[in-house]
C-alpha cells in the first residue's frame, strides 16, 4: 500500500488499507513500555505474576486490540461523538458527586455493579474531543481572540471544577493543562497567554493557602521542603529519591531493589513504579524508558501534523499533550521535582482505568492517522 | 463550506498557526523529558553514594541484644542471683495498627483481662513507633508457640525468648542484693551510662536497691547487636549472623555472705522482725546480713501489683526496710561493753566494786536496775555477767559522755562503712559536742543523761551492722576491722577488712571485756541458758541487751507485753569460739521483749551453722576421743596374717582353693 491509496476516496475506506496505515512502530513502542511495566510488576510482587503483572499485561492486550479497533472508526464518527462524549462525561461527574464511592478520602469512583470507574477519566478524552470539535468550526481569527473563546473556557472549567471538588487535584490539573494546551495550539493570542501566565503566577499563593485541602497543602509544603517531615508526607518523596539514587548507573539488578521489595517505596506498583524501575535497572533502564516515551510522544505529535482536518490535528495534539503531561508530572514527582499528586506513569503503572483512557486516546490518534485525508465537515458552525 | 475561498484561506491560516504552536508542544515535551533525564543523571550518577547509604540504612537495622546480667554468688560460689530463659510477648505499635484490636486477639491465647488490656493499649500507643512493649512475661511453651505460629497475621506482635533475673533464694538476700525492675522514665539520662539505648529495650532491667543497684553498671555488661534486614514496617525479613556483635555478659559479683548462715537466720526469725549480722572476726567478711521479715525479690522483677506492694509497704513489721543498715535502735545493755571499755581506758579499776541495791538515786531521779532486788556487790566482770545497771550508771556518771562516745566511735558506732551498698544509717553517738550541735534548744549535757548512756539508752542509736562490727573488733582484739560485703567484682578481689589500723586500746582491757562477755554465757550469766552451742568445748561469748522503746509510766507493764510496737527490743551480740574467736554476730529482735529470750537463742542457732560449716571448727568438734591408755600386748606382734580360728580337723581336708591356713592348721 502506498500512502497515496489514502488519498483515493474509494480505496481509503477499505479496512485493509486502514489497517496497514496504522503506525506500527508507534504500537511497538507502546508494547515495549507496557512490557517494561509488566516486568517491573512481576519483580515487585516478589517474582510473581500475581497480583499485578498478569493483570497489567492482559489488560494491555485487550486495550491494544481496542485501540486498533478504534483506529478503524471513521474520524467523522469521532467528530459526531465529540459533544455527546463530553456531555456524558459531565453528567457522570455530576452523578459521582451525588452517589459516588468515597475511596481514600476522595469521591471519585462510580460503581457500575460489574466494575467501578472514574468518570474523570472519560473527561480526559472528552475534553480533547469537544475542544477539537469546537475549534474545527472556528476561524483562526476567532480562535486568536474573540468572545467565542468563552465557550472553551467554560468547557474546561465545568469538568475541572467538578473533578477538583471530589477532590482529585491531579486530574483537575491534567484536564486544565490539556485544555489550555489545545486552546493555545488552536491559536490563542500571545497577549492573552501572557496575561494568563501573569494571572496564574499571582493566583498560586492564595490558592495554595486558602483553596487547597489540608493534605494537598501538606504535600505542596513538603515538596518545597521535603526534609521537614521525613516520616510523614515527605516520606514518599524521600523514599522515592533514595530508590532512584541508589539505583546508580546500572541498577541493583532485577528483583533486587531493596526500597521496593521491602516496601519502603509507597505505591510502588502504581504512582512510584518508575522509581522501582530506576532502582533495579539504574540510569540506563530509566533513560531507555524515557526514550520510548519520547518516541511515543513525537510519533503521536507527528500524526497531528499529518492530519488534514483541524479536528484531527487538535485531537491528536491534545491527546499527545495529555500523555506528555502524564509522563512529565509523574516523572517530576518521582524524582522529587514536583509535589506528590496522584498521576501515574501511563502504561508503566498498574491500573486499568488510566490504561484504558490512554489507549482509547491513542485509538483516536491512530484514527486521525488512518483518516488523515478525510474531509470532516464542520457542520453548522462551531457548536453544532 | 459556504465560502470555499475563505475556507481555504482559513484552513491554511489555521494549519500554519497550529503547526507553529504544535511545535511548541513538541519543544515543551522534549525539554521536559530532557529535564527528567538530567535529573536522573544527577540522582543516579552524581549522588549515587549518598542514596545508596540511605537505602542501606533503611533496610539494615542493628537490633540490640541485651547482655546477660552478671551473676551474684555467695562466698562459696553458690548462685544468689542468675538469669533464666523467659518467653516474652511483645507488641509494638506501627502506624495504622490498633493496639486494642491486637490485644483483643492476643487475649485468646494468653490471659489478659480488660483492665490490663486497657493499660497496655495506652502504654503501646504512648511508646515510640516500633518500640515494643512487653505484654506478657513467662509464657508457657504452649502459649509461646501458639503466638509464634500466628505472628505473621499479627502485625507488630513478636514472641521471643529473653532472659529474666531470678533469685533462687527468694527473700533471703532481698535486702542485700535488691532486685531488678523495668526502666522508668526517671532512670533515663541525656548523657552518661543511663543514656544507653539498651535501656529502652523491653528486655532490659535496671538494678534497684542493694548490690543490684550499687553495681548495676558492672552487672549490666555490654549489649550485643543482631544485624537484621527489615521492611518498611520494621518487620524482620532476614537475619545476617555474620554481622552480629556478641553481647558481653555482665561481671560476676561474689559476696562474702554465706547462703546457709543467711538462710538459717531467716528461718530462726520466723515471724519476728529484726536483723542479724555476722562478721568473720579475722577478715571482716560479712557472712550474714539478714533483715526479717523479708520479701520475695522475684515478685519485684515481674512487676508488683499495687495491692501486693501496699500490703508489703503497710505491714507493721516493715518488710521493705533493711533493719541491718537502715533501722537504728538503742543498743541497750549490749552497749555496756563499750561503757566498760571506756571505763578501763579511763583508768577505772575493774576490780573496784559497786553495790547494787536495785537502783541509784542521781540528780533527784531514781535510776532503777533491771533486777528489782539489786545485784549486791559487783565488780566489772560481775556487772557484765549480770548486766547490772547500777554498776554502769555509776561508772558512766564517773567517766562522762565524751569518753564513752570516743570509745564507741572507735568501735564503729556513729559511722557508715564502705561495704558497697547504699542505705546505711549512721545512728547517733551522743556527746557534749553532739548535744551542742544538734540540740540547740537544750545544748547542755545533763549529768543524768550519762547514766542512761552507760546502759545504752537515751539518745544513743545504732544499727545491727555497727553492733556486729563492734563485736568483731572486740573479738579480734587487735584490728579495727572493716566489714566487707563484696568479695570480688568480675574476678577482681576487693581489699580485705583486715587491712585496717590497730585498735588504740590496751589488749588487756579488751581481754577483760571479752572475759566479761564470756561470763555472760557461763552459768549464772544473763545469757547462759540461751547461749549453749552444744558443740563441745567450742563456746560462745556474748552480751544481752533489752532496749526500752517507750517511757513507761508507773504501773505500766515494762515493755514485756501489750501492743507490739511498744515492746522492748531484744538484742544480743556474740562471738565464738571464746578461746580463738572467729565469728562475731549481732542480733536485734525488734520488739522481741528480751535480749536473752528473743535474741540470744536465735544468735545461737545462727552461730552454730557458721561454726559447723567451718572446717577447722568441725575438726575440733569431731576430734576423736582420746584412745584409752593401753599396755602394748607383745603377743599381738606375732599374730599370723589370718585370724586364728581353731578349725575342726575334718575341715582341713576340704577341697583345694581354700586360702592358706594359719600356723595352727594341719597344712
Query: What is the gyration radius of chain B calculated from CA atoms?
Result: 40 Å
Query: Helical region count of chain B?
Result: 21
Give the overall pLDDT of chain B as a whole number: 84
Strand content of chain B: 15-25%
Oligomer: heterodimer
- The CATH topology label of the largest domain in chain B is Beta-lactamase
Q: In this structure, how is the largest beta sheet of chain A organized?
A: 3 strands, antiparallel
Overall residue-averaged pLDDT value of chain A:
84
- Tally the structural domains of chain A: 1
How many individual domains of chain B?
2
Largest interface: A-B, 51 and 44 residues
SSE topology sketch:
The complex is a heterodimer of chains A (384) and B (667).
Chain A: H1 4-7, H2 9-12, H3 15-21, H4 24-44, H5 53-72, H6 75-99, E1 101-103, E2 106-111, E3 116-117, H7 119-136, H8 140-144, H9 150-165, H10 169-185, H11 190-211, H12 214-224, H13 234-247, H14 258-261, H15 273-306, H16 310-334, H17 352-370
Antiparallel strand pairs in A: 1-2, 2-3
Chain B: H1 4-46, H2 48-59, E1 60-65, E2 72-73, E3 79-91, H3 99-106, H4 114-126, E4 133-136, H5 141-150, E5 157-166, H6 174-177, E6 179-181, E7 206-208, H7 210-214, H8 216-220, E8 224-230, E9 236-245, E10 253-255, H9 259-269, E11 273-280, E12 286-292, H10 297-302, H11 306-314, H12 336-345, E13 354-356, E14 359-362, E15 365-368, E16 376-378, H13 380-386, H14 389-399, H15 401-410, H16 432-438, H17 447-454, H18 464-476, E17 486-489, E18 492-493, H19 507-520, E19 541-547, E20 569-576, E21 583-590, H20 595-613, H21 615-621
Parallel strand pairs in B: 2-10
Antiparallel strand pairs in B: 1-8, 2-3, 3-4, 3-5, 6-7, 8-9, 10-17, 11-12, 11-21, 13-16, 14-15, 17-18, 19-20, 20-21
Amino acid at each position: 500500500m502506498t500512502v497515496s491509496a489514502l488519498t483515493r476516496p474509494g480505496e481509503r475506506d477499505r479496512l485493509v488499507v486502514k489497517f496497514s496505515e496504522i503506525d506500527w512502530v508507534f504500537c511497538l513502542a507502546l508494547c515495549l513500555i507496557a512490557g517494561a511495566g509488566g516486568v517491573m510488576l512481576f519483580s515487585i510482587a516478589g517474582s510473581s505474576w500475581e497480583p499485578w503483572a498478569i493483570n497489567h499485561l492482559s489488560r494491555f492486550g485487550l486495550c491494544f486490540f481496542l485501540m486498533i479497533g478504534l483506529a478503524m472508526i471513521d474520524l467523522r464518527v469521532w467528530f459526531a461523538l465529540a459533544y455527546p462524549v463530553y456531555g456524558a462525561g459531565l453528567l457522570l461527574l455530576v452523578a459521582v458527586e451525588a452517589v459516588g464511592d468515597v475511596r481514600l478520602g476522595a469521591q471519585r469512583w462510580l460503581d457500575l455493579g460489574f466494575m467501578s470507574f472514574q468518570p474523570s477519566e472519560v473527561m480526559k478524552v472528552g475534553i480533547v474531543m469537544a475542544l477539537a470539535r469546537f475549534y474545527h468550526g472556528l476561524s483562526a481569527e476567532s480562535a486568536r481572540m474573540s468572545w467565542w473563546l468563552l465557550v472553551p473556557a467554560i468547557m474546561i472549567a465545568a469538568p475541572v471544577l467538578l473533578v477538583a471538588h471530589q477532590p482529585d487535584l491531579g486530574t483537575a490539573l491534567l484536564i486544565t493543562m490539556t485544555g489550555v494546551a489545545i486552546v493555545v495550539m488552536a491559536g490563542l493570542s500571545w497577549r492573552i497567554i501572557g496575561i494568563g501566565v501573569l494571572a496564574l503566577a499571582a493566583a498560586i499563593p492564595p490558592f495554595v493557602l486558602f483553596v487547597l485541602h489540608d493534605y494537598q497543602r501538606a504535600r505542596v509544603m513538603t515538596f518545597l521542603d521535603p526534609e521537614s517531615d521525613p516520616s510523614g508526607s515527605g516520606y514518599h518523596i524521600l523514599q522515592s529519591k533514595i530508590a532512584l539514587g541508589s539505583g546508580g548507573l546500572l541498577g541493583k539488578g532485577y528483583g533486587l531493589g531493596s526500597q521496593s521489595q521491602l516496601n519502603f517505596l509507597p505505591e510502588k506498583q502504581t504512582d512510584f513504579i518508575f522509581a522501582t524501575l530506576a532502582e533495579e535497572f539504574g540510569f540506563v533502564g530509566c533513560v531507555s524508558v524515557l526514550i520510548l516515551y519520547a518516541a511515543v510522544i513525537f510519533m503521536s505529535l507527528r500524526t497531528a501534523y499529518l492530519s488534514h482536518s483541524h479536528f484531527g490535528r487538535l485531537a491528536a495534539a491534545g491527546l499527545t499533550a495529555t500523555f506528555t503531561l502524564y509522563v512529565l508530572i509523574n516523572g517530576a514527582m518521582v524524582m522529587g521535582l514536583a509535589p506528590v499528586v496522584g498521576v501515574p506513569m501511563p502504561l508503566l503503572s498498574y491500573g486499568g482505568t488510566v490504561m484504558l483512557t490512554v489507549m482509547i486516546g491513542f485509538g483516536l490518534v491512530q484514527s486521525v492517522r488512518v483518516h488523515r485525508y478525510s474531509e470532516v465537515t464542520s457542520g453548522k458552525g462551531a457548536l453544532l | 463550506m459556504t465560502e470555499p475561498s475563505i475556507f481555504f484561506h482559513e484552513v491554511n491560516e489555521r494549519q500554519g498557526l497550529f503547526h507553529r504552536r504544535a511545535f511548541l508542544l513538541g519543544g515543551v515535551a522534549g525539554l521536559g523529558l530532557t529535564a527528567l533525564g538530567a535529573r536522573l543523571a544527577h540522582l543516579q550518577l552524581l549522588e549515587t553514594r549518598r542514596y545508596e547509604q540511605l537505602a542501606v540504612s533503611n533496610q539494615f537495622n542493628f537490633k540490640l541484644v541485651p547482655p546477660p546480667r552478671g551473676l551474684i554468688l555467695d562466698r562459696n560460689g553458690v548462685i544468689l542471683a542468675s538469669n533464666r530463659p523467659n518467653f516474652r510477648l511483645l507488641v509494638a505499635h506501627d502506624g495504622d495498627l490498633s493496639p486494642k484490636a491486637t490485644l483483643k486477639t492476643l487475649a485468646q491465647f494468653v490471659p489478659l483481662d480488660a483492665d490490663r488490656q486497657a493499660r497496655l493499649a495506652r502504654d503501646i500507643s504512648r511508646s515510640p513507633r516500633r518500640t515494643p512493649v512487653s505484654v506478657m512475661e513467662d509464657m508457657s511453651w504452649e502459649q509461646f508457640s501458639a503466638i509464634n505460629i500466628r505472628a505473621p497475621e499479627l502485625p507488630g506482635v513478636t514472641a521471643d525468648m529473653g532472659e529474666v533475673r531470678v533469685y533462687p533464694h527468694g527473700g533471703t538476700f532481698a535486702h542485700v542484693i535488691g532486685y531488678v525492675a523495668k526502666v522508668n522514665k526517671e532512670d533515663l539520662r541525656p548523657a552518661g551510662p543511663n543514656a544507653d539505648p539498651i535501656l529502652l529495650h523491653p528486655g532490659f532491667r535496671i538494678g534497684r536497691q542493694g548490690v543490684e543497684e550499687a553495681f548495676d553498671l558492672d552487672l549490666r555488661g555490654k549489649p550485643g547487636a543482631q544485624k537484621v534486614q527489615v521492611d518498611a514496617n520494621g518487620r524482620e525479613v532476614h537475619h545476617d549472623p555474620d554481622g552480629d556483635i556478641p553481647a558481653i555478659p555482665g561481671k560476676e559479683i561474689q559476696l562474702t555472705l554465706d547462703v546457709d548462715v543467711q538462710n538459717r537466720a531467716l528461718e530462726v526469725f520466723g515471724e519476728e522482725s529484726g536483723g542479724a549480722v555476722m562478721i568473720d572476726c579475722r577478715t571482716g567478711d560479712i557472712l550474714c546480713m539478714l533483715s526479717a521479715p523479708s520479701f520475695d525479690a522475684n515478685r519485684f522483677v515481674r512487676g508488683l501489683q499495687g495491692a501486693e506492694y501496699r500490703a508489703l509497704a503497710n505491714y507493721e513489721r516493715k518488710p521493705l526496710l533493711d533493719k541491718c543498715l537502715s533501722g537504728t535502735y538503742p543498743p541497750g545493755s549490749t552497749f555496756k561493753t563499750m561503757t566498760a571499755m571506756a571505763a578501763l581506758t579511763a583508768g577505772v579499776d575493774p576490780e573496784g566494786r559497786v553495790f547494787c541495791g536495785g537502783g541509784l538515786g542521781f540528780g533527784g531521779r531514781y535510776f532503777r536496775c533491771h533486777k528489782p532486788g539489786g545485784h549486791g556487790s559487783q565488780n566489772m566482770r560481775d556487772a557484765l555477767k549480770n548486766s547490772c545497771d547500777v554498776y554502769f550508771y555509776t561508772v558512766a556518771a564517773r567517766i562522762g559522755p565524751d569518753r564513752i562516745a570516743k570509745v564507741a566511735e572507735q568501735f564503729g558506732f556513729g559511722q557508715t562503712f564502705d561495704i558497697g551498698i547504699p542505705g546505711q544509717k549512721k545512728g547517733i553517738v551522743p556527746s557534749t559536742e553532739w548535744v551542742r550541735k544538734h540540740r540547740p534548744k537544750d545544748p547542755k549535757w545533763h549529768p543524768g543523761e550519762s547514766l542512761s548512756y552507760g546502759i545504752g539508752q537515751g539518745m544513743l542509736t545504732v544499727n545491727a551492722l555497727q553492733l556486729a562490727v563492734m563485736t568483731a573488733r572486740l573479738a579480734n582484739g587487735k584490728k579495727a576491722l572493716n566489714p566487707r560485703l563484696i568479695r570480688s567484682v568480675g574476678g577482681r578481689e576487693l581489699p580485705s577488712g583486715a587491712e585496717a589500723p590497730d585498735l588504740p586500746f590496751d589488749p588487756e582491757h579488751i581481754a577483760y571485756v571479752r572475759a566479761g562477755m564470756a561470763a555472760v554465757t557461763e552459768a549464772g550469766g544473763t545469757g547462759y541458758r540461751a547461749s549453749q552451742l552444744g558443740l563441745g568445748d567450742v563456746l560462745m561469748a556474748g552480751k544481752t541487751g533489752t532496749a526500752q522503746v517507750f517511757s513507761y509510766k508507773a504501773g505500766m507493764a515494762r515493755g514485756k507485753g501489750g501492743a507490739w510496737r511498744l515492746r522492748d527490743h531484744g538484742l544480743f551480740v556474740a562471738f565464738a569460739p571464746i578461746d580463738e574467736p572467729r565469728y562475731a554476730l549481732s542480733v536485734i529482735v525488734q520488739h522481741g521483749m528480751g535480749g536473752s529470750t528473743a535474741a540470744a537463742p536465735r544468735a545461737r542457732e545462727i552461730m552454730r551453722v557458721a561454726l559447723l560449716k567451718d572446717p577447722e571448727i568441725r575438726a575440733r568438734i569431731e576430734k576423736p576421743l582420746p584412745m584409752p591408755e593401753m599396755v602394748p600386748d607383745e603377743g599381738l606382734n606375732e599374730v599370723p596374717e589370718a585370724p586364728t580360728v581353731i578349725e575342726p580337723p575334718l575341715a582341713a581336708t576340704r577341697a583345694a582353693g581354700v586360702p592358706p591356713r594359719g600356723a595352727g592348721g594341719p597344712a
